Known about the structure:
Largest sheet: 8 strands, mixed
Structural class: alpha+beta
CATH superfamily of the domain at 6-71 and 101-179 and 270-343: FAD/NAD(P)-binding domain
Strand content: 25-35%
Amino acid sequence: xxxxxxxxxxxxxxxxxxxxxxxxxxxxxxxxxxxxxxxxxxxxxxxxxxxxxxxxxxxxxxxxxxxxxxxxxxxxxxxxxxxxxxxxxxxxxxxxxxxxxxxxxxxxxxxxxxxxxxxxxxxxxxxxxxxxxxxxxxxxxxxxxxxxxxxxxxxxxxxxxxxxxxxxxxxxxxxxxxxxxxxxxxxxxxxxxxxxxxxxxxxxxxxxxxxxxxxxxxxxxxxxxxxxxxxxxxxxxxxxxxxxxxxxxxxxxxxxxxxxxxxxxxxxxxxxxxxxxxxxxxxxxxxxxxxxxxxxxxxxxxxxxxxxxxxxxxxxxxxxxxxxxxxxxxxxxxxxxxxxxxxxxxxxxxxxxxxxxxxxxxxxxxxxxxxxxxxxxxxxxxxxxxxxxxxxxxxxxxxxxxxxxxxxxxxxxxxxxxxxxxxxxxxxxxxxxxxxxxxxxxxxxxxxxxxxxxxxxxxxxxxxxxxxxxxxxxxxxxxxxxxxxxxxxxxx
Length: 492
């Protein structure tokens, strides 16, 4: 079958689908993106993204716009019922991405920025109010059955990616299945606008109170979120009553607030067993779901999008074989599972309802704090252990740092100088650019502001060059010619 309508069909236009569509279309890939809702969801859901996600927004040219709808991540305190600080997680002062450690944001505003970016990309065809129903695939492509406002249509694509959320129809279509971590807790989520003179806390708080475990965190500018664990016997319907909600918020003494959203969610950890079937893949909540305690739900999905975008682009351009997609789940699933397990570990700390068990937990966490031992594992991702990388070479699988120079609006960021291809950065000129690879020596004029940081990275690993993938993870480090050869062999 021929007659392709697009190269990639993206199902779902939440943040993950929008980022994937934009990354592909920015590279010239022809994308159709379907979204069953005619308008963006108007209320906040996710409230946190980290430095690596801001680096991806930078790649899309929208970091400054995102910054206007976000606040820098504050301290994150776990407190006992009587107010003692059991654990204080401070955001890192420096990150490999060259951005702040994290941001608290307003999701509808973020999605608005992404939609504006998509509207400026000629290769992106956005179709709202259209529902994916089913698919068939063959050796050359995928045909999707889609319901539109005027009837049913078929869309033919070379690849299809389901970014269609927790109840993903695409995941069902490929038999993705789900592994369940057996963590399932109902919580009331309340988002508010803080009025003039409001006194909402300026840090993020987990109140580990067995009488009512509670989360209190910043959202976008002028907004705040509370999450209240439902206790045994409480119904979602009763908890959503305005009087109940205001009674729960009242003791925080925050002054006038306007309730924007209230909903009861079940916090759980799930991972699809199968993220790819032939030319069909899934990403974001379609592939994995996490409790919110580590703030990694949307972040994990956007990392999926960045991992998939460059691989699909390379395959469609003919510089990589289709088998490259086998590295997608192999690379992303361990990261995802580590984040989910960290979030569940945090959740089990917070969700303790037995007063005696809570007292033991508090004592253990206070003892760990006074002894200098971490009460929770560090919130840092391990390097890829397998996938598209030169296994065993220094730095392989790590996120490559983005050096910066200058301050404020004059700040320079290295990614902007080198572009979105893969990079071969070497101590000396290593030849001309090759297909999909920017070859740069450290003495080049455009790298002058970042030279010291790059030399330091190479010196620490005692290598002459590093090859960085388009998603800014290290393929490998060593001799320039050997890296290029290994990169091309790995793609094919």
